[in-house]
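hiii so my PI (J.) wants the whole complex modelled not just the main chain, which honestly fair. so below is everything: two entries, each one labled with what it is. i double checked the lines twice but i was tired so who knows lol
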Amino acid sequence: MNPEVPPPHIPISRPISVDRASRATREQRRARQVRLLARSAGKQPRTPAPEGPLIEFGEVVTCLLPNSSAMYRDSITELFGQMSDEYGVAWRERPIPLATSPDITEGVDCVLVTPRKAEMRAIGTVAIRAVVYGGRILQSSAQTRVVRAASDKRHPWGHYMDRDGVLEVVSKITATTSDDLVEGFLSNKSLPKSLDMKAICDRLLGRIRMDQQLDQSAILRTRATRLRWAARIGHADQPRLIFKLGADRIRTVMISARNEAELARVPRFCEDLGVHDWLLTLGSAALADTDLFAKDSRQRIDIIAPMLTQLVHLWMPGAHTPADLSDLWDDLQENPGFTREWQAVVGQLRDRMSLALYESLRDNVIGPA
Amino acid sequence: MTRTIGGTSSWKGGSNPVETVTGYFEATEHPRISELPLSHVSIEVGHFYMRDLANGIDRIRAQFREVALIVEAHIKIAQAKYGDDARVSTCFLIDDYFRLSGSRLLERTAPNVIVPKLLAAAEEFGLSIDYLAREAGCWQVPPTEKGTPRIYLAEMVRKRIVHQPLRGMNGRRPPAAESGWLCNGRRESEHVSGQALHGLDYQPAEELGRNEHSIVLDVEMWSKASPKKGATPPSDPISWSCPYLASIWQLLRLGMLRFQGGAVVEPFRWQPELRPSRPGSAAPALKVWPEEWSDWWDMPAVLQLNPRAKPFAAYHSFSVLPLRYLRIESAVQLILEHVRLDAAVIDQIVERGKSEGVVVPRAVTERMKHCMVSES
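here's the output for the full assembly
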């Protein structure tokens, strides 16, 4: 629009009398309203924003349960009792025992990070649960699904309480919002007011790790790994993933699922992935640690023995992955080859163990007189 | 959105478990949630403080006279809505949690004194009380003969409270679950420390999710109690507030609570033994109170007085209460908005309603109706 030419309904000559002046003011106001309306109309997305969930994302922190022995169903039920008394745990016995706590939720009213600085305000809840795998490995897993809000106003709290783990975006949504959210979440950047899933996960992990039932003597010194994942519905004929090994034990996973039902099963897959990535990380760290000590030293055996006797049998990628997402494991087995790497690590650990054993025996049997 | 029954552990959208575990299935994978028998409406027929019950009968009679008419009308409404065989049950909650201390008063508030008096007054106006419940039962449900353990109900519901986030709460700080207060907004800034020194602007209180103007409620759910001397139930370090226990009472009546998948309270059927008031007299027989229930604490949480009563829990609750309970009931609404109920239980009840042609809202606060009666 040419700014020189005023809209036709505004009188060009300015009236002088008080009466007409007020009328002119009214006209000006109306003109301004029209301009604002036109501007806001220009802001509306040209392509309709996507329906359904924009993105689902979460975080899984994996660590060793600080307990000297493996935990069984009853003790895990008690351990999870601090979250909810009512049901105890969802328990799966085979092929590796898997205990899942009931969800708890936490309310947030925060911003979501996007690469283009557009502030996305989201209100709702994050669902969190604890998982114990094989009675040894503890996970704290948080997830939330981002959807568009019906209106740009915040509702009374009861509205959000009926939607576990759903965040409603009250800011404007465009066709690129979904991509922006994925990029923003996986970039690991944070603003002062942006959603802090790390804190939510760590709080639950801390609560469980400090439980009096645990004897706090872990079989090995280990560190936690953190897996951040984002998922959305893609158009491919099978689910796809991008797995990125980051520095400082942070892994990011981007998954595209085929439909909403698959999307809902992504958290379970990511927990499975988290366990196996943690085992691999632990295995390589153990190999590096043993290098610090002499080949027949006690310290070397102290590292290798608990790995071999307590943790190696837990390797079973995909065992608890929902069937429709099992293709994702095939990709990972192909490249980088999870099981291949694990076999190499375990082989090395066993060889080092045998060698240490041999060295210590040689000293006794044929050593110096 | 489809949800798995008992699928609290399977996040949204989980479908039939058989679809996800073709060929192999473990029973413990999805904890079972039992269905409760449900009435259409559960009507609460009035409420008294313990001191009203301990004193004269006039107040009780006056209230029951009015309530009887309201209940009658409401039964007719239910029949118009759900057909002639609409299931309506009535209940009464005894205020035995906030008991009067002092041995003289304890004697006057013993169950064998209070209950016959109460039931006689109700009978006088043709008001039938199907279930008699104890408020302390909303705090702890006593163990039953069937072997269910004591259920720490107040504590159990406390774990389900999700605090409402203020704008900017992003999960970094833990939700303030310890204070015992629940607010539906931001409190005013007058009492913020340091304000006097820095001269910050006054910020009025603000309700979150409000409609134009704010009504900010700040509800105390519990406080740290000093142990009571000589209290028959072992004293709790926490003193639960009236609105908090009343919220649990509503959840029980609406069939929303489960313990290990089963019902939290199963009404205990009690058939009073009748004894003629005087040999040869025409006066109605007296109901003999069992010896073992000389103290409230020894009684079951809910007694079923009418053997033909319709189920205790219901799709909808209707409470006839004295006017002074207006504020308590708004507090109840606020608390219930913050209690995270099991999606599987909600689904179950909504589906059951659908099969019977009853529309059951998902929000529990929309299933509660009230009628406030004046006390004079």
